[in-house]
From TrEMBL:
Residues 61-225 form the Predicted 3'-5' exonuclease PolB-like domain. Signal peptide: none annotated. It comes from the Bacteria. InterPro entries: 3'-5'_exonuclease_PolB-like, RNaseH-like_sf, RNaseH_sf. This is Predicted 3'-5' exonuclease PolB-like domain-containing protein. One of its GO terms (molecular function) is nucleic acid binding.
């Protein structure tokens, strides 16, 4: 029962990713071959591996993380706050900073992570990029040997499925049907690489990522039939 979970024990998260390199042309021959082979079933016949490279950010083997945004409730008595912060910069620094947060503040048995489609995308992506960057996995995302009921992760997409595993609902659609202000009021995921590599506007991406974190928290509140956050309760730190 999600109503029984203490909100203060949940770390809400979202990541933004881009292709590891701006241009397909800088890839060495072996990487080009591996990319072509990896994507052969996703690409239509008329789409070349080079043209498809703009989507490389969705695979941890060919993409990288440019920001991780997190949010957490600080509820005391009748005062409710939701604090949001982001890690950005070089990928290894982002991952180390996030790891330190987990190991220092969200490493207890009571702590859980929560995102939208986080079990399928965000958390595996973070884990794989940590391994690629030579970073030890924090306990909260080290799933080796853990049984399904021992995994300390919540997923608003999974909660919304209610056991219907063929069903997918985007964050934008779910916020719409639940009456939550949409986080997709500026850019969407398909534009992140352009904003990062061409516009060099990481602040815009961080704002976008933090809005997604807030939206996930709002969805979780709605699933618990609780009042949504208002602007005054959200603190950016």
């Amino acid at each position: 029962m999600i109503e029984k979970i203490n909100l203060n024990n949940i770390l809400f998260l979202d990541i933004e990713t881009v292709p590891e390199h701006q241009n397909y042309g800088v890839l060495d021959e072996e990487t080009r071959y591996l990319w072509e082979h990896k994507t052969q079933y996703q690409r239509k016949d008329e789409v070349s591996a080079e043209d498809f490279y703009e989507r490389a950010g969705i695979w941890a083997e060919f993409g990288k993380i440019i920001t991780i945004s997190v949010g957490y409730f600080v509820n005391k008595a009748d005062i409710r706050n939701f604090r949001v912060t982001s890690f950005w910069g070089e990928e290894k620094k982002i991952l180390n900073d996030f790891s330190n947060l987990l190991n220092t503040h969200f490493n207890g048995a009571q702590h859980v992570l929560c995102g939208h489609n986080a079990k399928e995308f965000d958390i595996p992506f973070i884990a794989r990029r940590m391994i690629i960057n030579g970073i030890a996995l924090p306990n909260k995302i080290n799933l080796f040997g853990k049984k399904p009921w021992e995994v300390p992760h919540l997923d608003t997409l999974e909660l919304w499925k209610f056991g219907d595993y063929k069903h997918f609902t985007s964050l934008k659609l779910l916020t719409k049907v639940l009456g939550i202000p949409s986080p997709k009021d500026d850019i969407d995921g398909s534009e992140v690489a352009h904003v990062f590599y061409v516009e060099n506007d990481i602040d815009r991406i961080i704002t976008y990522c933090e809005k997604d974190v807030i939206a996930v928290a709002q969805i979780f509140l709605r699933l618990r039939r609780e009042e949504l956050l208002v602007e005054d309760e959200i603190i950016h730190v």
